[in-house]
Amino acid sequence: MSGRPSRIVFGCVQLLRFGGLELVSCLFPAALFAGLAISKYVDLPIARYDALLVYCLLLTFGFWVVRLETWREIAVIFGFHLVGLALELFKVQVGSWQYPGDAVTKFAGVPLFAGFMYAAVGSYICQAWRRFDLRVSGYRPVLTTVLAVLIYANFFTHHWIVDLRIPVALLLLVVLRTTWVFYTVGVRRYRMPLALSFLLIGFFLWIAENAGTFLDAWNYPDQVDVWRLVHQAKFGAWALLVSMSFVLVASVKSLEGRLYHRGTLATVVTPEATEISPQHSTANQVRTPGVS
């Protein structure tokens, strides 16, 4: 019985450590939302969206200067910025949502800063990858990339043809059924299904989207007159879109040799991971959350 309280205490400590690492990994998104809040309630000498664009550019440059992100990570984050901006331009034109207010840096109804809201997702994944020492096993890069592109394309095509998000999502689950993400908290190594991580990130992005619309950064048609919760279907949409962000970050981590965990027990379940020597088997124990 004496061991049970100690396990509970250790579990609570690990949960706090996990939460702390998550908070630090969200530095860019947190700074972005701070900018949204300040720009809503403080009078600025220039238009709000123009100020936010300058702020986000300085924020990105600052992350690189203090080495919170590498130049490769900045490049992939900028790539996701462009991916998001293209989606914004289309969605605003078809009336899915709108950006109130004018700005010099507003093009076709979309402020250029909008892409940074997608870039923030890429920044979070890059930060979490480093701070949790993330690695994956059983990852199928080609199939996952193809499905991520199809998911992205469906955000455009479903306005003209049948919505394919559910069948594509099911295919993604099939492809990722043996893919695990491994991460470190304190002295323990844990794992979870990669698909589950997409769902969790998607849920918190849905919460973030509610905060963004509350701060009047953009509005859905049913929020123009009075704010209300973003429809729950957006949770699924974000979970799917995270796959694109992951594919972009994974491509960088593959170049850096940090996609698969070589030389440790954690990911020696993939053809890409190398064999390990017996002494590693006791030093690097992998635990699945909830399993002691």
Description:
The longest helix has 23 residues, at 3-25. It contains ten helices and six strands; from the N terminus they run ααααββαβααββαααβ. By secondary structure, the protein is of the alpha+beta class. Helix 4 packs antiparallel against helix 9 (233-255). The chain is globular, with a radius of gyration of 20 Å. Mean pLDDT is 85; it is low at 262-292. Keywords: Membrane, Transmembrane, Transmembrane helix. The chain crosses the membrane at residues 21-40, 46-66, 73-90, 110-129, 141-162, 168-187, 194-215, 235-252. InterPro entries: DUF817.
Feature tags:
alpha+beta; single chain; 6 strands; 10 helices; 292 residues
List the SSEs and their pairings:
Layout: H1 3-25, H2 27-41, H3 48-65, H4 71-93, E1 106-107, E2 110-111, H5 115-131, E3 135-137, H6 141-157, H7 165-175, E4 180-185, E5 188-193, H8 194-214, H9 233-255, H10 280-283, E6 286-287
Helix pairs in contact: 1-5, 2-3, 2-5, 4-5, 4-9, 5-9, 6-7, 6-9, 8-9
InterPro entries: DUF817 (IPR008535)
Keywords: Membrane, Transmembrane, Transmembrane helix
Pfam family, one: DUF817
